[in-house]
Amino acid sequence: MKPLLRPPRLAPGARVAVVAPSGPVPEERLQAGLDILRGWDLDPVVTPHVLGRHRELDYLAGTDAQRAADLQNAWCDPSAAAVLCARGGYGAQRMVDLLDWEAMRAAGPKVFAGFSDVTVLHQAFATRLGLVTLYGPAAAGVDFLKNTRAQEHLRATLFEPESVQTIGAVPPGGAALVPGRARGGILGGCLSLLASDLGTPHAHPGARGGLLLMEDVGESPYRLDRYLTQLLRTGWLEGVAGVVLGSWAGCGPYAEVRAVLADRLGGLGVPVVEEFGFGHGEGALTMPLGARAELDAGAGTLTLDEPALS
């Protein structure tokens, strides 16, 4: 994996744009999230279609062109120091090919944060813009609105990234499914999106040399097996240095999920740590995709070579 550029950290008073590249956002949740951001002395601005809804496909926050324009305009706005996703859902795959990557590259580096369906955009920001991005809570996400740990870890990453340069698994998680240490660049996100993004123009060509993050929500064990098997069969996991597993909310009894993870990942011969505490679970940590780090599966820690943001 090539080293990626770290965007500048945020300062008090910074303007941040809030976008909805996938699903629609309930207004009350959006307002609650904006209040939290204002409490951090940020100046959040909402793009035009965050509260929009596609006329026929009501799982989308506006048309593909509208959502793409919102994201591109926010990114290219020189007054915005960050672009934060309001939620995940579904739809990023439909709009990612409409973005003008040359214009976005010319706009320079800034913070991009979100999770779940936003995995597709994280991969594109890495491969097209060469940027470190933050796989962390959505600005209008239920967990972010209610959980102090999720809020504080994102806030620290944005403003004081050196204070969270070592990321420890959320207790009681962080057990080694396969013990050991490994080094590499961090990549990954939501498992089902990693599988569905295979072979597309903006996806990582493979996980070779990387520390792979994976989590998901609402996928039964056999579906998780299918996604992991697809990654294995395509060779995408060849040469991966280590694996960090997050939450599996709504995926069935964890003993059954764990059996799938052990069966599909145990043969890779690399360190694997489970239940690290990022993703769709309670109090989700913010994980810097593209940063280089050392994984200690036994200790349940991920230590970054340098702070996530410059």
Measured between the Cα atoms of the first and last residue, the distance is 20 Å
Task: Give start-end ranges of low-pLDDT stretches.
Answer: none
Tell me the quaternary state: single chain
Shape: globular
What structural class do you assign from the helix and strand content? alpha/beta
Count, helices: 10
Would you count the extended β strands for me?
14
Largest sheet: 8 strands, mixed
Tell me what you see in this structure.
The chain is an alpha/beta fold and 310 residues long. The chain has 10 helices and 14 strands. It has helices at 27-39, 64-76, 92-95, 101-106, 119-129, 142-146, 148-159, 191-196, 221-233, 254-265; strands at residues 15-19, 43-46, 80-85, 111-114, 133-135, 166-168, 176-178, 181-190, 210-217, 242-249, 272-273, 287-289, 292-296, 301-304. The strands form 2 sheets. It has an 8-stranded mixed beta sheet with strand order 6-14-13-8-9-10-11-7. Strands 2-1-3-4-5-12 form a 6-stranded mixed beta sheet, sandwiched between helices. Strand 8 (181-190), helix 8 (191-196) and strand 9 (210-217) form a beta-alpha-beta unit. Helix 9 packs parallel to helix 10 (254-265). The radius of gyration is 18 Å and the shape is globular. The chain starts with 14 loop residues before the first strand and ends in a 6-residue tail after the last strand.
